[in-house]
User: Fold this.
Amino acid sequence: MTSTIEPEVGKSRRRKEDERLITGRTRWTDNLTLPGMLHLAVLRSPFAHAKIVSIDVAEAKSAPGVVAVFTGKDLDPEGAIGMPCAWPITPDMKSPRRPILASDTVNFAGEGVAVVVARTSAEAHDALEMIDVDYDELPVVLGLENALAEGAPLVHEDLGTNQNAVWVFDSADAGTGSSVEDAISNSEVVLKRRFRQQRLVPAFMEPRACVVDPTGNQLVMWSATQVPHILKTMTAATLGLPEHKVRVIAPDVGGGFGGKIAVLPEEMMSTLIAQRLGKPVKWTESRSETMVAAHHGRDQIQDLTITANRDGTVTGLKVELLADMGAYLGLVGPGVPILGAFMFNAIYKFPAYHFACTNVFTNTTLTDAYRGAGRPEATFGIERMMDELAVELGMDPMEIREKNWIKHEEFPFTTVAGLTYDSGDYEAATAKAKELFDYDGLRREQRERRESGDPVQLGIGISTFTEMCGLAPSRVLGSLDYAAGGWEHAEIRVLPTGKIEVITGASAHGQGHETAWSQIVADKLGVPFEDIEVIHGDTQSSHKGMDTYGSRSLVVGGIAVVKAADKVLAKAKPIAAHLMECSEDDLEFSAGKFSVKGTDSSTSIQDIAWAVFSAHNLPDGVEPSLDSADTFDPENFSFPHGTHLCAAEVDTETGRVRLRSYVCVDDVGVAVNPLIVEGQVHGGLAQGIAQALFEEAVHDEGGTLTTGTFADYLLPSAADLPSFTTDRTETPSTTNPLGAKGVGEAGTIASTPAVVNAVVDAVRHFGVNDIEMPLTPMRVWHAIQHGSAAAGGLGSEAGGGLGSIDATGGAQ
Assistant:
């Protein structure tokens, strides 16, 4: 029998979640008020590096409304509690203890040193000013190369070095390719460049917050987190609590972007204080605290060498990274650059590849995952290098890419980094993008503007990218020494009336899981979209999960939902056969009904649900339940790809950049909900373009963050961005039954190099081959006046240094 019901998968449905979110009928962590709840405020160090001589809290303790004041020694007198790091990338990685509150030494400006507990938030914050801390300042080390220099001040004296770890991948050693040193010796072209990935702040809408209630049978924590299941396990392990007595709830969360993937000192602090006082407590950070104390992202120096023959065929790629960890190690921070190790080769057929990353401690806020986590950095590096190689060889930058990328007929393709890309069609995505963009027409206009000496020059930027997402096959994570797996769990409950509850371990913070999961289950079980409820974010109702990051929700969590639905049907089939007095082999399922082949006899999933509930007439030995669960561990990553094209106009008299048009054609496999896909792409583009043109976290020579407010840390508004032209091609993934690939980070990964390539392309005839991000008007103007060597950037092999242009000097 054929179904006449329109499939849900592929339909652009508005999100179920949005009604409550945009009307305010929802609950954020800071909205929670519990009986007897107390409020916390954290005193943070103004110094980046200092000994704590003394902390006098006597006056604060007597302030109005104050219940208690705690220092680090009060909460952890033995100094035994340290925040977890789940990714020891090498056996000899140095992992200093990160305390809940600093007791002896502060290692970055913003580190907590004391906490006030009061009856109101205002009273707690007022009392902070009454705490007197005597600091003895220590030398500060900032900058990756400075930190590794001989005689540099040490962030952690007991380690004897600022080097955290060195991680190396070599294709010759791994058996995935030949020697890169041979390629350097034997190739006709050897091109070296140095690029800077500036430090960024994940500027989520909702600051971090938690509420801890110790008064029931379980300790309950509400947190604005991306990772409630990981937070539960890590809270138990860090504080020595029985895990079954800990419950974590992530209510609606106002953005994360990787910035809420951490296990926070403040969460552990709140738990200890709630237990100590026997009362619920709430901690909500201010926006200013977010800027200095929430983890930062990126912050790398990339030294890249690409080798090729004169005909444009690439022969090798060498990557040497320095990555800033900040003062401590984040939950997955050491591994973030390592994720990029597998993506520098991108869509290209490099026969030789070498990657080495040195992680470094500095007296700054720690870095950790930020949207894309290692893959944007890698994509930026290789896409900038492909442009530079094209210029060196006198080729069109699109031509050099087309010559070296994996052709559609070559999939599946095992790369020089050892990953097997299952499917893709870079030719199709590029052809569609060029047509939408009018690539040839814009190239003609560019030539005309140059010939006429137009003060506003036009540049065209290209980014043809892929990424590995769907983190991650557990065995791969194990081979990289990550502490946990990459599986995901889902359950489906079939209620007596045929309504459905879907329980997912992939805890959403804005991605639209409730809508997409409902669409998947509606198609699988043939029940109406409206009859499905998706439950997530509570470790008691969703007891098992690995949470949300790394574009894993659909291609790992969604597949667990698919497989759980398959199990529901497998349970329902013998019951349907029994009810219709036929053989299971005679049944087919479509549009929510089991039918006897060749007849009009059928029974719906709703009828079966009631029969199971009543249990009056079931086959012998069949349990009265259709409820099913699945834990899915992916066999491979998913590899979305796309072509992003940017046209940028640069005013050579002022350095101002205007994005005239932006076209992207992404291939995310089968799209469950194209409207959600488009929203994810738009959001990602905004963040990637922001890195290229606007955002940078800057410290002064004493380690104070000088971009600590949105007056100084520049975020783009809608008025600063163009209207995006987006489209899709579709090559289904072959490694999951939906054929889906990730989309959550695609826009961020691809857009930054497209924009920078466009701006550099516009002013290259002035002798510019790089401008350090963000490309502020001041930096662009300075580059035009003096060429790359003085562009505030790292430029070519001979460029050296980090430049001296003030990052805020070009704020528009």
